Amino acid sequence: MYMVPTPAFRRLLAALLVVGGLSTAAVASGSAGAETSWPAAAPKATCGPGSLPETSWQGRVPKVDYDSGRAAKGYFCNTRQVAHQGASGGFKVQRYTDPAGHTCAFYDSTLVAGRDVLSNTLNGSGLGVQVLDMTNPATPRKTAGLITPAMLSPHETLVLNRKRGLLAAVMGTLATLPGVLDVYDVKSDCRHPKLLSTSPMGILGHESGFAPDGRTLWSAGVAGTLAAIDLTDPRLPKLVKLQTGVVYHGVRLSPDGRTMYVANIGNPSLSGLTGGGLRILDVSQVQDRVPNPQIKVLSDVSWKELSIPQVAEPFTKDGRRYVLEVDEFIDLFSLQALTSMKTSPVGAARIIDVTDPVHPTIVSNLRLEAHQPWRRDAEWGDPGASFPAQGYAAHYCSLPRTDAPKLVGCSMILSGLRLFDISDLRHPKEAAYFNRPVVASKTPVFLPPAVGSWAMSAPAYDAARGQVWYTDGNSGFYVVQLTNGTAALLK
C-alpha cells in the first residue's frame, strides 16, 4: 500500500526538507525559455536485441504506463537483470575483492532512517549496511548486516578505501547527526567485516571522502562543517582539522590526496543560494600533517542549470585531469522554487576539465530529455514526479576506472540506472539503461510513497563480467548485465 501525498502535504514536506538541510540553488532565470538556451540532452541509446525500450521521451515513465501495466514490465536498453537482492537501497554500492579472492558488495539499505527501519523490518531486507558474498553474481549471498551506529544511518557517507581495505561511514541524515564514525576492516575477510573503532570524530556528517592512501577520512556536513580525521591507526581516529562556516556536500581527492574537489552547496538564504558549484581546494597541509593546517580555495566554477551539487569524481585522460560532477534533485531551497517546482532547474551531470585547478572549465553535459525544463509540466502527473526528493533528476554518478574511463553510470531517480558513453568527452551519448519502477509497495511506506523508481546510489562495476551493481531505494540491490556490445565500454 502507499499514500499519495496531497499538494498541501507536498508543500509541507518541501518546507521540512529545507529546514532539515537539503539546501540548493536559486531558480535559473528563464529556465522554461527557449530550448536552445539550455544544455542539450545526450543522444539516445540505440537499443539492440532483447531490449524493452521506454515508451515516451528519454528517461520518462508516464502515468499511462502505470495505468496500462506497461511500467510493471520495466524498461531495458542493452541491459538485462542478472540478480536482485532485498527490497530497499540507499546511496552507495561498493565492490571489493580481498587478498584471499573473496568479492563482496556493500550497500546501505536506508534512504531515511525513520522511514526505512519500519519498512525494512516488515519486508525482511534487514537493517544497516548489507554485506553480500558475490562469488557468483547471479546468486548474491548475504553474509552480514552492519548495525553499529553509523552503519544504521550512514546517509551518503559509506566509503571504501581499497588500498587499506577499510570500510567507513559517519552517522547522518538528510540534514545531519552528531557524527559517530565507524571504521571496519574488510581486508581480512570482506564477507565478515571487523569493527575497528566507533568514535565521535565525524562531526555533523552528511557526505564523506577518503584520501587515496587511506590515511585521511573527510566528513562533510551540510550543517556547516568539514572534518579531516586521521586514520593512520584506524583503531584510534584523531581529528586533525575542523573547518566551519562552509556548506559542502561530497568531497573527492586527487591521487596524491593534496587537491580536493568539493560539491559546494554554497551560501543558502530564503531568496536562494549563491556561490554553489564546484570548488577546488588545496588540502596539502592536512595531507602532510602540518600543525594547525590551513585549507586554501583555489577556484570556484558554477553553471546556469545548477541545482544541488552532489559530488565530483576525478579521472584522467590523455594527460589531462577532469571531474565528473553531478547535481541532485531540483531547487528545494528558495521560496520561489518551492512554489514553482515545475520549472525548477535540474542540474544533472557534467564533465569539467580541472587540469589547471585555478581555471576549471566545463567540457560537456550529461542530461536526459526528462531533465529539460520545458518537459516538466507534462511530467508533473507521473507517479513520483511531483515529490520534491524524487522526480526526474539525477543523484549519483560514478566511474568504473579513474584512468581514461569510457563509461559513466548514473542513478537518476525515476529514470533508473543510466549509462553514458564518454569515449568522446566533448560529446557524451547514452549507451544503455535499466529501470524497474515499483507500481505498488508490498509494505506500508510513507515519505514518499513507494511507487516508481528511487534510484539514488553510486553504482559499482564488475568490468571482467561486464556488469553494473546499483540499488533502488524502493526495490533493492541489482546486478545488471550490459549487452549488445556495451560491456566493452567497461574495459
Automatic annotation (TrEMBL):
It comes from the Bacteria. The keyword Signal applies. Residues 1-28 form the signal peptide. The keyword Signal applies. Keywords: Signal. SUPFAM superfamilies: YVTN repeat-like/Quinoprotein amine dehydrogenase (SSF50969). Residues 36-55 are annotated as: Disordered. InterPro entries: Quino_amine_DH_bsu, WD40/YVTN_repeat-like_dom_sf. This is LVIVD repeat-containing protein.
